[in-house]
Amino acid sequence: MVERRGRSPKCGRPKKPLDKSVEENLIAENQRLQEQLQYAEAELEYLKKLDALVRAEEQMSGKKPK
After folding, report:
1. How far is CA 62 from CA 36, 39, 48, 53, in A?
2. Would you call 54 exposed, middle or buried from its count of C-beta atoms within 10 A (0-12, 13-18, 19+)?
3. How far, in Å, are 20, 48, 55 from residue 61 at the CA level?
């Protein structure tokens, strides 16, 4: 006996293909968002390294952070 739960994979409407202009807009938006994410990740890494350098400098000079 086969157990049937949930929807069958064949239910629902068939998907319509996207218009060419809509597909191009989605691809361009995806690319823009990926570039923005890479920039934000690089900025975060830079700030982490800068913070580590500042803390190390303060520790070596004997000053307490503000």
Report:
1. 39, 34, 21, 14
2. exposed
3. 62, 20, 10
pLDDT in tens, 9-41: 666 666 788 899 999 999 999 999 999 999 999
Whether residue 8 is predicted with pLDDT greater than 80 in this model: the reply is no
Please report the DSSP string for the chain in residue order. -----S--TT-SPPPPPPPHHHHHHHHHHHHHHHHHHHHHHHHHHHHHHHHHHHHHHHHHHTPPP-
pTM value is: 0.63
